[in-house]
Amino acid sequence: MDRMKASVCAAVVAMMMGFVWSASAQEEESTQQVDWEDAAYYAELMDTFVNDDGVLMATYYDEAQNVLWSQPASEPVEAAADVFAQGGEYAMTLDFFQWIVPTSLWLCEKDEGDDANCDDAGSFFKWSTGDFALVDTSATVAYYDALDTACSYPGIERVRATGSSNLTDYCDSNYNGYYWNPETDNFYNAYEDSCSGLGTPTIYRYTLDDSPNVDDFTYGDSERAARFRFLVPGSTYHYTEIWLASCIQ
What we know:
This protein is mainly β. It has four helices and 17 strands. Helices cover 13% and strands 43% of the residues.
């Protein structure tokens, strides 16, 4: 899949739907429980790759539940329902794993000291779960677009983002959050990042937040904003990247 072409298509969809951005920037606690039978039934094949053990893997995505996972390509997609229903730890033993998916993104025009919750009216851009579109995957990276019609986000002093994984736990020392510096064209460790579990069964929530290192940045369309990094046991580091969708001028 061509990531840039997909981004343009996603932006067109965003314009047609007329997204209405929330006026509140309060953090949203995701408590959605995945129905794995529905996920297996409605999932679309996104990509295939060979993992470090030489196993051909297939990556599937259920957009309605915003869940992304990989499994051996030789297994029927319905096998995921049986495996994930037994828990993430069990899934890891069978070359099944779930990706971190984005649930929110803020680009704030005030730093943390001036606007602790990033909610001063007119001083932030915000995306939540329904505002992301998965546009491409590879062996180690999932690319999501934050859908909007804006072409530029100037004067940014803070980047915040959250993601989640149902069942699979990448907390401990396996998770790191990164923000994108548009001036150097590179990712850097976020000043703060954390992971926690909530609900029953547990959903793992990942955060990244950087204000001290973000200074009057301008983010443009088709540009990265944030990244979640996690280690798949027995494999390599994987990443979920949030991009700003291509605008229509």
